[in-house]
Every structure is written in structure tokens, then in C-alpha cells.
Request: fold
Amino acid sequence: MDGKPVSRQTTHTYILYNKPTGQLCSRHDAKGLPLIYERLDVAPNVQSIGRLDMNTEGLLLLTDDGDLARALTHPSAALAREYRVRVAGQVTLETLQKIRQGGLDIGEGERSEPWEATVDYETRGHTWLTITIRRGRNREVRRTLEAVGHPVRRLMRTAFGPIRLDEEMPRGAWRPLNSREIKRLRQLLPKD
Reply:
């Protein structure tokens, strides 16, 4: 650049962020809504690996390693994403089976994918589920559960591939991934 050799970036940033509700996974918002980058002291080229909508909380990975980000979010990767979900109403075994089988009309001309789903426990008027999806389409969890009559009341991502959210990590906190976690993610890259 400007007649001088430019070295290739040899180190990357890898971050785990426990995203609270009420933040957008965006660098800018014309409406002035809160952004995750207002809480994170990171370089401009550090981007989220996938997104969580404004009302979803939990594990969000960020990096400046574009090859890794593309590989992890490409539909062919079918990378597991685990969520804890509180839905309205009591989920029946029949409904749970529909969620597991997939094929539900979730609007926008799309059908739901098969999920792993278990009922954790029921409280008065609500059910807590643990679900694992492998595609991660826009608002897929909310649209699917709405389609079976159980609107989402709380949605938290607890795992993304081999990375799990630290149970003791407060909402809004972040930390660098450790070398073991980075190695596990990099093992998911396609072999040349």
C-alpha cells in the first residue's frame, strides 16, 4: 500500500459475548437503537458470527477471522445451535413430536427444519424447552414455536457448535475465547 509491502494478518480476535436483550447485532442503526458494539471494545473489522435478534439473549461469537465466520454460518455446515426457550402454554407430546419432525409452515414460504427438542420443566402457564437447530434462519425459533401455538416469552442461545455459554457469565459480559475453544472452532473449517 502506498509503495510499501503490507503483511498479512496473522493473529485474529475471537470473543464470546453474553448478549442481553435489547441490543442489535449491527454496527449502525438509523433509529438509534442500542448496539452490541457500544458495549464491546473491539476493532471495526470484528463482526458477529451469525446474529441474535434484539429480543434474544445469550451466546454470541465475534471474530475478525472471515474464513472461520463464513464456514460456521454456511448452511452446509449444519452447525448445532442450542437454545433454552420459555414458551407460553403447556407443550404436549404431540406438539413436541411436530417440532422434532419439522415441515411446519412458518410463514414467508418456509417450512421448519427438524429439531432436537426436550421439555425441561413446566411452570404455571409456561414451558421451558431446550432445543437444538442446525440452520439458523431469520427468527426461525420464534416463527416455528408460534406456528405450533406457543409464542416465545424468553429465548437464550446457550451453545454455538462446540462453544458453550459460561453459566456464571453475567449478561453483557464478554471474554476472549481460549486457545482450546479456538482450536475446536478451527477444526470445523473445511479441509483444503
User: Anything to note?
Assistant: Strands lie at 14-19, 47-48, 57-63, 81-88, 116-123, 126-133, 152-160, 163-164, 174-176.
